[in-house]
Amino acid sequence: MICSTFERDLSLRKARESAIVGQMSTVASLVVGLDGSTSKGNTSNGVSSDADRRAFLARRRKVDCILIGGNTARHEPYKQSPVPLVIISRSTINPVAGNDLSHLWNMSAAQALEKAKKSFGERILIEAGTSIIFELIDQGLVDQLDLSVTPVTGGENPIDWRALLNKFAHHSLTQIDGTDFYTAHN
Question: What's the pTM value of the predicted model, to 2 decimals?
Fold first, then answer.
């Protein structure tokens, strides 16, 4: 789909607004390459796109807390966050110790999600790796999935993103600058 600048900006604004839907309090966010790669060069930046980064940053401004896993904290840039950052890890060493908003919790993903809602507010954004995201989806604890599919191929740790979308009853698609933005919910 080729969009004019106006159409692209309007589509991006709609994608941003749909990032957190009124009743949807727990949103998981994931970017993958077209072949399902979840990382390239050991980071999600390798499979991201400019359009995905813009939507990613906009989505983070609308939540009360971000929840990630220890591996995500060690491999992604979380030295700063706009809201409290919960890191689920068995380690006792905070991988983003310089982030004054970070909290290191040694508990299950479901327990951390419940505690984060009580501590920070209902709107939780899960930016964790696939194992935590899949676990929470399978437990019925994710209200919405925001999935970005970029044209990148040849990365690592591929998943079947189509099967992931099929875990939800409904999904919509917006295309911006070569990136497909899926919003899925039940």
Answer: 0.85
Q: Please determine, for residue 183, whether its predicted confidence score (pLDDT) is greater than 70.
A: yes
pLDDT, one tens digit per residue, over 106-141 is: 999 999 999 999 999 999 999 999 999 999 999 999
Give 42's pLDDT tier (boundaries 50, 70, 90). Answer: confident
Contact 86/65 with Cβ under 8 angstroms? yes
- Residues 159/146/141/106 CA torsion (nearest 10 deg): 70
Which stretch of DSSP H or E encloses residue 136? Answer: helix 130-138
Q: How far is residue 176's CA from residue 4's CA, in Å, rounded to a whole number?
A: 10
Tell me the per-residue pLDDT of 2-14, one tens digit each, with 9 for 90 and over.
444 444 444 444 4
Residue 113's CB is within 10 A of a number of other CB atoms, namely 23
The CATH number of 24-185 is 3.40.430.10
The DSSP code sequence of 72-84 is: HHHHS--S--SS-
Using DSSP bridges, classify how beta strands 124-126 and 102-105 pair: parallel, antiparallel or unpaired.
unpaired
Alpha carbon distance 125, 54 (integer Å): 16
